[in-house]
Amino acid sequence: MSLNKVTVLGTGVLGSQIAMQAAYHGKTVVAYDVAEELLEKLPDRWEWMRGYYKRDLPDYNEENFNAAIARIQTTTDLKEAVSEADIVIEAIVEDVDIKKKVWAQVGEAAPAHTIFATNTSSLLPSSFGPASGRTDKFLALHFANMVWKSNTGEVMRTTETSDESFEATLKFAEEIGLVAIPIYKEIPGYVLNGLLIPWLEAGSNLFVDGIAQPADIDRVWKVGTGSPHGPFEVYDVVGFGVASHVAKNNPDPRSQEFATKLEESLARGETGLGSGKGFYIYDEQGEIVKPNPAWEL
Hints:
Layout: E1 5-9, H1 13-24, E2 28-32, H2 36-39, H3 42-56, H4 62-70, E3 72-75, H5 78-82, E4 87-90, H6 96-109, E5 115-118, E6 138-143, E7 152-156, H7 163-175, E8 179-183, H8 192-208, H9 214-225, H10 231-238, H11 240-248, H12 253-267, E9 280-282, E10 288-291
Parallel strand pairs: 1-2, 1-4, 2-3, 4-5, 5-6, 7-8
Antiparallel strand pairs: 6-7, 9-10
Helix pairs in contact: 1-4, 8-10, 8-12, 11-12
């Protein structure tokens, strides 16, 4: 099964990266979002990514990047977006009811052969996949943020995913430059987030409890372990939109308080690395200038 026509649902931080990752590796891509003003942000996203592709990829090719942009079409019409798709990759908000509604529409409109993949970070595919009406073709394909560099592709099947769909998606992940990781059983957060989210929550709990400043929590982790990044630097890369939804799903009062603070930051237009302001303030090259005073204890 050849998966050459890709539709990406959602053009936010990860959705736009997924679209570019697929297009840069030769796939034809349709990027869908609910409003034209969201799609109008994509040219700026491409230029933002271009700088990182140049910096991070030893074999970066300028002509290939320009050709990738040309291979990405945009639309606000969901039926049109999926009408010729070999694979649909969903990267919308982490809300089960919204995902069910979207996948029900996709299931009615997509060709019979289309594989359905969700990029959900924290939900089980089986909690909303049945809405598509095609559980044998439904699974998860999880991308890490900064896809071009952190290029894992976790392919997680459900109990109803067919072997053909599973194997085809693993092959597709490799074709678009990912390190394909097969996951044979559903688990919230896959392997990556199963490790990452508890670590991030430990950092946010230390901050919410008033133990130390975000920058100092990062510093002690980096100095003590030799790791290149601390939890709050990673929060900035992940983006506050995703982080707030993950925090909301944790009933711990500290997580709820942290989610509220993240939403207040989002309301100020501070979303993390993508906006140049998160727990840190960044320069145009995405390098840290200083801690953001808005997050000081």
